[in-house]
Specification:
With 411 residues, the chain is mainly β. The protein is 5% helix and 44% strand. Strands 27-28-32-31 form a 4-stranded antiparallel sheet, with no helix packed on it. The protein has a 3-stranded antiparallel sheet with strand order 3-4-5, with no helix packed on it. Strand 4 and strand 5 (60-67) form a beta hairpin. The longest helix has 8 residues, at 289-296.
Length: 411
């Protein structure tokens, strides 16, 4: 009888001969493997035929030699690439080296290109070895850059959305304005946060959207009122209409009431518009003594005679008519006019409201307070308030003794 052992070895590149034992022992045995006397080395199943080769004995046996596949290990690399539009195949290395490996990506044999995570299953594809490995291919998003334009528009009531361009071109971009996805329209500064919204790319950018104030114009009216004791506020209109306007008069926010000229500075006061202008407010004097009297004196004061032409309620030596002619306040002490002497002669310089049609101004000089001679009046400065000089050239009479006086008469 023949006994066969070594029928289940593992592949290791060496031939795998079956061992035969006989009863009685020591007999020669001829063995074939699938009909061949050469012991195989490759993994697989082989039909064994064994027969006693002895002059005195006969016997045979059969069986199957199964050479199992050898164990191989697989190493996976290239599991963390970055998206660049190309397929990202994992690289597999084996021990022993050089074995073929079949790889699937989420069950597909096609290597993916899109960013994302993919389950990797790798198995040795070799007649003599077996082995497998698992892993995860993570294709990271590619880096994209964002360029922002339209960061400095001007207010015009419409929303001002920032424009974003990307490299590579055409990617979606999510933009927030101070944290809101709604583009603002009001003038002001807004923090811009922009991020690529794409399955394969990532990128971000920040900036500041500054919506400048729109240009507005201001028109001023009421620049030439007549004095009547009341404040004379200038009227401002704007384009576009209805904007707030801050106005100053010689630097003060209080509208003046006194006759005179005032530098006007007007500026738009609005969160969305800017604009300014300037001008001159000229409050003209009262145009008649009656108007002037009614502006300065109450009805009771007039009834008491304090408003009469010749009355002097402030006791400064000037009658009410003289105060009117000089444009001074009848209730406030007015210092006396001081004459001056120079190479041109003896002169008095004074101011008066322009355009008083009911006053006759004259000047006279004398060297003895007896006879008076007319002295010419010279207008030195024009405007709402005129500057006038009466000058006695001292050409006649006694130049060492001279008198000069102003006369104010009703027409």
């Amino acid at each position: 009888t023949i006994g066969l052992t070594g029928l289940a070895p593992t592949y290791d590149t060496l031939p795998k001969a079956v061992t035969a034992t006989t009863t009685p022992a020591g007999l020669s045995v001829a063995i074939t493997y699938d009909g061949s006397a050469t012991a195989p080395s490759a993994a697989g199943s082989y039909a064994i035929s064994a027969s006693v080769s002895d002059p005195n004995y006969t016997g045979s046996a059969s069986g199957t030699l199964v050479i199992g596949k050898g164990a191989a290990t697989i190493g996976l690399t290239g599991l963390a690439p970055t998206y660049d539009t190309l397929p990202k195949a994992v690289t597999a290395t084996t021990t022993p080296a050089g074995l073929s490996v079949a790889i699937t990506y989420d069950g597909s044999a096609t290597a993916p290109s899109a960013a994302g995570s993919y389950a990797i299953s790798a198995s040795v594809s070799d007649p003599n070895y077996t082995g497998s490995a698992n892993g995860t291919l993570v294709i990271g998003k590619g880096a994209a850059t964002i360029g922002l334009t339209g960061l400095a528009p001007t207010f015009d009531t419409l929303p001002k959305a920032v424009t974003a361009t990307t490299t590579p071109a055409g990617l979606g971009v999510a933009i927030t304005y101070d944290g809101s996805a709604t583009a603002p329209s009001a003038a002001g500064s807004y923090a811009i946060s922009a991020s690529v919204s794409d399955p394969n790319y990532t990128g971000s950018a920040s900036g500041t959207l500054v919506i400048g104030k729109g240009a507005a114009t201001i028109g001023l009216t009421g620049l030439a009122p007549t004095y009547d004791t009341l404040p004379k506020a200038v009227t401002a209109t704007t384009t576009p209409a209805g904007l707030g306007v801050a106005i100053t008069y010689d630097g003060s926010a209080t509208a003046p009431s006194a006759a005179g000229s005032y530098a006007i500075s007007a500026s738009v006061s609005d969160p969305n518009y800017t604009g300014s202008t300037s001008g001159t407010l000229v409050i003209g004097p009262a145009t008649s003594f009656t108007t002037w009297r009614d502006a300065h004196f109450t009805t009771a004061e007039q009834s008491a005679g304090l408003a009469d032409d010749t009355a002097d309620p402030d006791g400064d030596g000037l009658t009410n008519f003289a105060e009117y002619a000089l444009g001074t306040d009848p209730h406030q002490f007015t210092p006396p006019l001081v004459p001056s002497l120079d190479s041109n002669g003896l002169s008095i310089t004074f101011t008066r409201p322009a355009g008083l049609s009911d006053v006759i101004y004259t000047a006279e000089s004398s060297d003895g307070l007896g006879a008076w001679s007319p002295v010419p009046l010279e207008v030195l400065a024009t405007g709402a308030i005129e500057t006038v000089r009466a000058c006695d050239p001292l050409a006649t009479g006694d130049p060492s003794r001279r008198f000069l006086r102003l006369l104010f008469e009703r027409k």
